[in-house]
Structures are given as C-alpha cells and as structure tokens.
C-alpha cells in the first residue's frame, strides 16, 4: 500500500502544482499528532474523502511545546511526520514552524480546509482566510472522545496491578519484585509445622514420650 510523502514546503508546493495541473482537488488537515490515536486516524481518513489529495501539516517541536506545555512533544517532528504519512489516505505531510497554519494555507490555497469535531464552521480560526481565497471549511471525524492528554495520563498513571500506581508497599520487597509473603515459623524454629514424629494425636505438640 502506498504511503504519503514527507516533503519540505518547496517540494510540497511543486507537488500541489502538478496535482492541480492534472485537475486534482486538494484537502488540508493540520495538528500536532503527538502520540497518534484512533481519533487522529479517523479525522485524517475522513479528511481524505473530501478531495483527491490530502495534505497534512504538522506543528514543529517548538510550536508543540508552546501549545501543549512542558513534557511535549513526546515524539520529535520527524517521527510524527513519518507516522502520519503511513495513515491510509494521507498523500503529503509537511512540518511547519509557525504558531498557526495561515501562512501555509495562503501558500497552498487548498480547496478544503478540514477541522475536527471540536470545532464548528464558525469557530475555525482560519475560516476568514479560507473563505477569502475561495476555499471551503469541512468539519470531519468522529466525536472528540479521544485525546493525547488522556492517553498520556493513563500511561503515566497506570500500574501493573491494573488500578494505577505500583503494588502496595507491604507486598513490594526490596528490588521491586513482587513475591508471596514469608511462611510463618513453627515452634520448632523451621517453616511450617513440627515434624510428624513429634506431633501427638490431637495436634497438640508436647514432650517426647519417656523411654521404658
């Protein structure tokens, strides 16, 4: 199955010019895509159905850090771009350094600017830009039930015992390996019960019988 190509802005402009010369329409999507999840995949695949070619613009590392805060991006831009390019329906991927996609939209002038369902037609920040050059806005993808923030929270808070965090301290010996609690010691000083020959009927341990 063919995958999308990760291109510089100049190479992308050349590819789009060739597509337009062949009569193809262009859709555009953008985002950070830092830890790709199923919501991202559905958004991109829905966007790809809006035109003949899909361009995906990915925020560079510096802009992701500004937008998302400390600790992100988890993956560097080159890795995020390669992962997104492997999604079915994506034709071109480019990394942009600006804090918004307006300059790239003006350079490419895609026929359709696709945004996720956390927006409405009226709340898309680039709406005036797109309408101004004659493009249209499309709201695509499934409901906003998935987020990278929730995914990271689960990864950072999850534990092996399935309830979040580590195993309880009383069951966690030095070295972090969980094992069974120690055996109780019997009265003879060894683990378990006293030997059978020293355990009289009734289970009460007493003195050995006198020799005759």
Secondary structure blueprint with pairings:
Blueprint lengths: L4 E2 L2 H13 L4 E6 L6 H11 L4 E7 L1 H8 L8 H9 L6 E5 L5 H7 L3 E4 L11 H7 L2 E4 L8 H10 L55
Parallel strand pairs: 1-4, 2-3, 2-5, 3-4, 5-6
Descriptive tags:
212 residues; alpha/beta; Rossmann fold; six-stranded parallel β-sheet; 7 helices
What do you see in this structure?
This protein has a single domain (5-154), classed as HUPs (Rossmann fold), CATH 3.40.50.620. It has helices at 9-21, 38-48, 61-68, 77-85, 102-108, 127-133, 148-157, and strands at 5-6, 26-31, 53-59, 92-96, 112-115, 136-139. With 212 residues, the protein is of the alpha/beta class. β5, α6 and β6 form a beta-alpha-beta unit. The chain is globular, with a radius of gyration of 31 Å. Helices cover 31% and strands 13% of the residues. It has seven helices and six strands; from the N terminus they run βαβαβααβαβαβα. Strands 1-4-3-2-5-6 form a six-stranded parallel β-sheet, sandwiched between helices.
């Amino acid at each position: 199955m063919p995958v999308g190509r990760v291109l510089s802005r100049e190479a992308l402009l050349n590819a789009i010019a060739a597509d337009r010369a062949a009569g193809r329409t262009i859709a555009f999507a953008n985002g950070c895509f830092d830890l790709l999840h199923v919501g991202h995949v559905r958004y991109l695949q829905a966007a790809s159905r809006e035109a003949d070619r899909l361009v995906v613009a990915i925020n560079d590392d510096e802009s992701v850090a500004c937008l998302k805060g400390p600790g992100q991006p988890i993956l560097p831009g080159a890795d995020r771009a390669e992962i997104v390019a492997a999604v079915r329906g994506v034709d071109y991927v480019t990394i942009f350094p600006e804090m918004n996609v307006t300059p790239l939209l003006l350079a490419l002038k895609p026929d359709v600017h696709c945004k996720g369902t956390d927006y409405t037609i009226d709340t898309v920040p680039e709406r005036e830009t797109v309408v101004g050059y004659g493009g249209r806005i499309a709201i695509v993808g499934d409901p906003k039930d998935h987020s990278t923030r929730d995914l990271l929270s689960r990864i950072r808070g999850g534990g092996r015992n399935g309830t979040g965090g580590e195993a309880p301290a009383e069951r966690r010996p030095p070295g972090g390996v969980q094992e069974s609690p120690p055996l109780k010691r019997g009265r003879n000083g060894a683990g378990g019960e006293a030997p059978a020959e020293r355990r009289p009927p009734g289970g009460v341990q007493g003195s050995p019988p006198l020799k005759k």
